[in-house]
Design a protein that fits this description.
The structure is a single chain. This protein is α+β, with helices and mostly antiparallel strands. It has 7 helices and 10 strands. It has helices at about 1-20, 65, 85, 115-125, 165-170, 230-235, 240-260, and strands at about 55-60, 90, 95-100, 105, 135-140, 145-150, 155-160, 185-190, 195-200, 220-225. The strands form 3 sheets. Strands 7-6-10-8-9 form a 5-stranded mixed β-sheet, with helices on one face. A 3-stranded antiparallel β-sheet has the order 2-1-5. The radius of gyration is 29 Å and the shape is elongated. The two termini are about 15 Å apart.
């Protein structure tokens, strides 16, 4: 009897050891001590895309001078204390243009926020007196990415600071479940022409930090595929619960037998 019980626990120990041996595939950035992060040097700036919404505020010393350049809900609301809350957003059309008051159409797709501010400032400057130095503020609204698949909380994530890495997005989604493939993350992206592209990223490899896909663009979709363990378990159905219950009962019985035989 003791040999049987010993054999049972030996098998259980082997199973536990084999399950622990796969933990290497769970660790992120495994080779970070052996690579150079120099290629990642530089600050990321999001670029305006068609269908983006822009909030644009123009301010001058003389309130009446900037009023015609602010697209507001009501007359005179743009320059007041609540002006920023009263401004209408500009929708970038499929060709990359916005229709700006007084100026007309301005092509903004492909520009960073700072570049867009400089461009609009140069467009409105001729309409102002020489001593007026306008301040133009552009904010990208509706910046979002989607994280789905084997994460704890899949969904659409709003990006407030116009910058989000794939690691931040996954963290916002509650991180990968134990069943998620960390070495084969799929990233779907649509460019300014509407063409779709995809690439695959490896969170186990620290070189992902050097990747041009490390920072996400507007409307990116991150999909985490299930690993083979999840795929196999998906076909077990309700029998999985039965097997776990059986193993639990068998372990309890074995422990009880050990205690009895020792006595």
């Amino acid at each position: 009897m003791k040999k049987i019980i010993f054999g049972f626990f030996a098998i259980l120990a082997v199973m536990m050891a084999s399950s622990c041996g796969s933990s290497k595939g769970v660790v992120y950035f495994q080779n970070i001590d052996s690579i150079s992060l120099a290629p990642s040097r530089g600050l990321y700036s999001a670029r305006i895309m068609p269908k983006d919404e822009l909030t644009i505020v123009v301010k001058t010393l003389a309130e009446e001078a900037s009023e015609p350049f602010n697209l507001s809900y009501g007359k005179g609301s743009a320059g007041g204390s609540n002006g920023a809350n009263s401004l209408l957003p500009y929708l970038v059309d499929n060709d990359g243009y916005i229709n700006f008051p007084v100026i007309g159409k301005i092509h903004v797709a492909g520009l960073t926020r700072t570049e867009c501010e400089d461009l609009i400032k140069s467009k409105i400057q001729p309409y102002l007196s020489k001593n007026e130095n306008p301040i133009v503020t552009v904010k990208l609204s509706g910046y979002k990415v989607t994280v789905t698949g084997e994460v704890s909380s899949p969904g659409v994530i709003q990006v407030d600071q116009e910058k989000m890495s794939i690691v931040e997005a996954i963290a916002k989604a509650g991180d990968l479940t134990i069943y998620g493939k960390r070495d084969n993350i799929m990233l779907l992206r649509e460019d300014e022409t509407g063409e779709k592209h995809y690439t695959r990223l490896n969170l186990n490899d620290a070189n992902i930090i050097n990747s041009p896909y490390y920072y996400l663009q507007q409307n990116d979709v991150v999909y985490v595929e299930p690993n083979h363990v999840k795929a196999k378990n998906s076909g077990l159905g309700a029998s999985t619960t039965v097997w776990f219950s059986f193993i639990g009962i068998a372990t309890s019985v074995a422990s009880l037998l050990v205690s009895v035989l020792r006595d």
